[in-house]
Please model this.
Amino acid sequence: MKRILELTEGEYDLIETVRNYKRSFPRGEPRLRWALRVMLEELLEEPLEE
Model:
């Protein structure tokens, strides 16, 4: 089942970075891990859009 969602650019970037990180498994690129943490922190600090 596919869902149609509206994403912010930050949300879309986070999802794409997670996909890239998962593709690099099992080695996992350390810079991608760091980037994911930074992106998540930034998204959590943003106010919700209504």
User: Anything to note?
Assistant: DSSP finds two helices and no strands in the chain. The two ends are 26 Å apart (CA to CA).
